[in-house]
Amino acid sequence: MLAGQWFCGIDAELSIDKQRAHKLIAELAKIDVTDFQARLELLKKLFGSVQSCHIELPFTCDYGYNIHMGDRVFLNYDCLLLDVGEIRFGNSILVGPGVHMYTVNHPTDVERRRQALTIGKPIVIEDDVWIGGRSVILPGVTIGRGAVVGAGSVVTKDVPAYCLYAASPTTSKMPSEKEKMANGEWFLSIDPELTNDRIQARQLVAQYEKLGPYDADATLVLTKLLGSMGDCCSIELPFRCDYGYNIHLGSMVFMNFGCVLLDVAEIRIGDRVLLGPNVQLYTATHPIDPETRNVFTRGRGIVIEDNVWIGGNAIIQPGVRIGTGSIVAAGSVVTKDVPPMTIYGGNPARLIRRITIDSDRHQHQHHPHSHL
């Protein structure tokens, strides 16, 4: 790796090095932001070399020891430095929020890429450079002294000294993390825009909790929180969601106490749907690989069609559709689609029986207190 040759990215020694870097960053988060000396001492452990710098959190890097900081380097919120190759900063450098620097590259050949082969090409940021927010610096790039990189630029080649580099308005821009989330792609959940969206959702949920579900203004709060909502919906407290705007409710939807809707992707609930206590709807999934699991998230939508009843403590996994008129038994874990007019239960949930209207009405008349 250090010699700039192809190497295996899942090597055990390198995995340990990554874990070390992540632990040091976690320690950095615990230090008071005004304790500049303590922060600098920790950064000296993390980076290959550093004179003086200030890093706003969150911050992410691969190894740390391939990063070399000059004097008076400032990195704003949510910067990501993939330091498979060296990243060298000069003096008096400003790096805006959400800037990504990628020294890493992979083979174009699929078979070699499956072997986790990786190579690094260094990035050099010379003195007095300003890099605007959400810019991406690609492998092998040198940004010359005194240059300015406009916000949102993707830098694929060297930037000469004392020049302004900006993406053309006609150039296709990199999708935001929010756009990636909406498209069902892998995205960074620590993205500042998404973090702000989650904070706003929690604030609206707090308002709803303060009012209570039966207050006249509670419905107004829900219409601000949710993507859409039909008539006569009721959500008991407590209630939790990630963003809210990915949740779409039909009419006469009832959620009992303690429901959790992780709406990284859309959750669409039809009309006359009953959700028992502590029902969990999970659209979010993460990579299997431990190194990327803490960083990336992807969503797969959940659809609950009309006249569905989901029993208490049931869990609905990403990508599941529950068909019209079906019932999910209490405590079930639903990992695949549930056909219409069926009863599913168990872990993982399996078909218990099909629902036939005449026989079930007859059963209800003889067993009026029966329930799942």
From TrEMBL:
Keyword Acyltransferase on entry: yes
Keyword Glycosyltransferase in annotation: no
Domain Maltose/galactoside acetyltransferase: 1-52, 178-231
SMART domains per UniProt: Mac
InterPro entries xrefs: Hexapep, Hexapep_transf_CS, Hexapeptide_acetyltransf, Mac_dom, Trimer_LpxA-like_sf
Key words of the record: Acyltransferase, Transferase
GO molecular function, one term: O-acyltransferase activity
SUPFAM superfamilies the record matches: Trimeric LpxA-like enzymes
Pfam families: Hexapep, Hexapep_2, Mac
Protein family per UniProt: Belongs to the transferase hexapeptide repeat family.
Protein name: Maltose/galactoside acetyltransferase domain-containing protein
